[in-house]
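Hi team,

As requested, here is the filled-out complex form for the zinc ion run. I kept the field names the same as last time so the parser does not choke. Let me know if anything looks off before we queue the next batch.

— J.
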Amino acid sequence: MKTGSPSCDADVPDRADHAVDHARIERAAREILLAVGENPDREGLLETPARVARMYAEMFSGLHTDPKVHLRKAFTEKYDEIVLVRDIAFNSVCEHHLLPFMGHAHIGYLPNGRVLGLSKLARVVEALSHRPQVQERMTEQIADLLVHDLGAKGVAVVVEASHTCMTIRGVRKPGSVCVTSAMKGLFRSNISSRAEVMSLIYGGRSQ
Ligand SMILES: [Zn+2]
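And here is what came back:
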């Protein structure tokens, strides 16, 4: 087994800011303020539309990045046991309410001769989370990418997240956590491999 911190290299992700129409978001934010009965021209709100535009550009930056680029730097290695990176923190935006959901992703895979730099898994999560998302889809997308673009023999992805659309509005259930998982290849077909990766994901955690 090999585990590691996802933050061990410092390359900067592309921030394709130019692809986002800031002026349009600013107009829309101003419209929302007017629509809820606020005065967008009062002092405290003057800079708000511009801030909202910068915020959305950042939260949706993943729409303009290709997560596959992070898999190109895989290196050849004879290691053929499970590689697991646990507790990759992420924040995303639920596409149904445009409210944040945030939590942790745990990614395990069985290499097929190619191993990724540990931080690349965190880069993949970042690219796929910084866009309007659904947790179930994001979980599948991470797993599919590692199967198809890394050629992993098995992939296990577990995502645990708290959705503010459930905690601050609607049913208002603070503390609820949504757990999704995707098992591919050997982790899907072989029960003992799946049990091993799940025990690594949850091993040593106080639940
Ligand atoms: Zn939602």
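Two things worth flagging: The chain has two domains: 2-10+66-202, 21-59. The two ends are 22 Å apart (CA to CA).

Thanks,
J.
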